[in-house]
């Protein structure tokens, strides 16, 4: 059985728009967006959880570092199900940490801590969960990126116009840090 719900930003969705409804999503059939070279698939978000958490996957090819950013009110986790991802995190005292996470590894980013990541192996996948008093940010991916009904990676990377980076913090708990430098080894 397939459930499809309309959304203002896409013709259909497999995710119900209101909380309190159980639902199931087949592999890869959440709300998808292309951002940079990656495919982001949202399976649950603020609309379903009364803004308490979100659940999404990010998969992509080996590539560049995702821009440094932080979430003032949101905690984020990274769980690697395929491949390898290098996670960069700066703690509240300014100490920077870097770790290559492989299948089964877990990374935790506290709220208000700058972070970024780089996919280190082709066909890598991260399961992400974010939660906190600031709500959820999962719709950031399709706002900054582009919604897609395609299940695969974008044929060409989708790089947003520079002005779009400035509009994201107004709607989501994401603050980009242009010029942030990682002093770690890689």
Automatic annotation (TrEMBL):
SUPFAM superfamilies: RmlC-like cupins. Gene3D superfamilies: Jelly Rolls. Pfam families: Cupin_2 (PF07883). InterPro entries: Cupin_2, QDO-like, RmlC-like_jellyroll, RmlC_Cupin_sf. Residues 60-119 form the Cupin type-2 domain. This is Cupin type-2 domain-containing protein. It comes from Streptomyces gobitricini. The lineage of its organism: Bacteria, Bacillati, Actinomycetota, Actinomycetes, Kitasatosporales.
């Amino acid at each position: 059985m397939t459930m499809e719900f309309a959304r203002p930003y896409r013709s259909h969705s497999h995710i119900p728009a209101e909380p309190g409804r159980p639902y199931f999503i087949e592999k890869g059939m959440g709300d998808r967006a292309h951002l940079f070279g990656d495919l982001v698939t949202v399976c649950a978000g603020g609309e379903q959880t009364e803004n308490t958490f979100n659940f999404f996957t990010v998969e992509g090819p080996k590539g560049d570092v995702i821009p440094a950013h932080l979430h003032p009110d949101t905690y984020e986790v990274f769980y690697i199900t395929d491949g390898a991802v290098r996670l960069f995190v700066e703690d509240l005292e300014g100490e920077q940490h870097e770790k290559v996470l492989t299948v089964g590894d877990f990374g935790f980013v506290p709220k208000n801590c700058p972070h970024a990541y780089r996919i280190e192996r082709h066909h890598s996948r991260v399961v992400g969960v974010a939660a906190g008093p600031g709500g959820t940010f999962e719709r950031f991916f399709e706002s900054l990126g582009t919604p897609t009904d395609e299940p695969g990676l974008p044929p060409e990377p989708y790089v947003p116009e520079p002005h779009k980076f400035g509009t994201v913090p107004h709607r989501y708990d994401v603050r980009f840090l242009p010029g942030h430098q990682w002093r770690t080894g890689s």
